[in-house]
Amino acid sequence: MIKKVTAVLFVSEVEPCAKFWTEQFGFQKLAEVPEGGKLGFVMLQKGNVELMYQSYASADKDSPATGAVARKGPTFLYIEVDDLEAIKAIVKGAEVTMPERTTFYGSREIGIKDPGGHYLTFAQFTAPAP
């Protein structure tokens, strides 16, 4: 049985992404792996939500094939939240990729880019998620 799925997002620099999640959303660093004078990897968690970021340089060392494919990104994450207004305040100043909208499936959503260039859609359902 599957117990958990965690996204691993590949980026040029891990530090801005770790800062984004820890300072703006209150995530904690569970683990970090240095790569030269920078971070090569970080594991972040808040409650039951976990994210990992790995640098392209670190991926190249792990597996050159993975490093090459990782650069083809970006990744798209769909994140369900309780309070979209609070999220909008938290991500103020981030690049908006999708202005707020209301969907036919019952959610209000906004899309942004994280510091690593990945696309994040935050959604608040007005009724139970389908």
Tell the overall outline: elongated
Largest sheet: 4 strands, mixed
CATH superfamily annotation of the largest domain: 2,3-Dihydroxybiphenyl 1,2-Dioxygenase, domain 1
Radius of gyration: 16 Å
Q: Give the helix proportion (percent range).
A: 10-25%
Poorly predicted runs: none
Number of helices: 4
Q: Kindly report how far apart the N and C termini lie.
A: 23 Å
* Total number of distinct structural domains: 2
The overall strand count is 8
Mean pLDDT: 94
The first-level CATH class of the largest domain is given as Alpha Beta
Give the strand order, joined by hyphens, for the main sheet: 1-4-3-2
Give the amount of beta strand, in percent: 35-45%
CATH architecture field of the largest domain: Roll
Q: Order of SSEs, N→C?
A: EHEEEHHEHEEE
- Helical/strand content category: alpha/beta
Query: The CATH topology of the largest domain, please?
Result: 2,3-Dihydroxybiphenyl 1,2-Dioxygenase, domain 1
Summed up, what is this model?
With 130 residues, the chain is of the alpha/beta class.
What labels would you give this structure?
130 residues; alpha/beta; 2,3-Dihydroxybiphenyl 1,2-Dioxygenase, domain 1; Signal recognition particle alu RNA binding heterodimer, srp9/1; 4-stranded mixed sheet; 8 strands; 42% strand; elongated
General description of the model:
It is a single chain. A hairpin with a 2-residue loop joins strand 2 and strand 3. It is elongated, with a radius of gyration of 16 Å. It is built from 4 helices and 8 strands. The two termini are 23 Å apart. The chain has 130 residues and is of the alpha/beta class. Helix content is 25%, strand content 42%. A 4-stranded mixed beta sheet has the order 1-4-3-2. It has a 4-stranded mixed beta sheet with strand order 5-8-7-6, with helices on one face. It folds into 2 domains: 1-72, 2,3-Dihydroxybiphenyl 1,2-Dioxygenase, domain 1 (Roll); 74-130, Signal recognition particle alu RNA binding heterodimer, srp9/1 (2-Layer Sandwich), CATH 3.30.720.
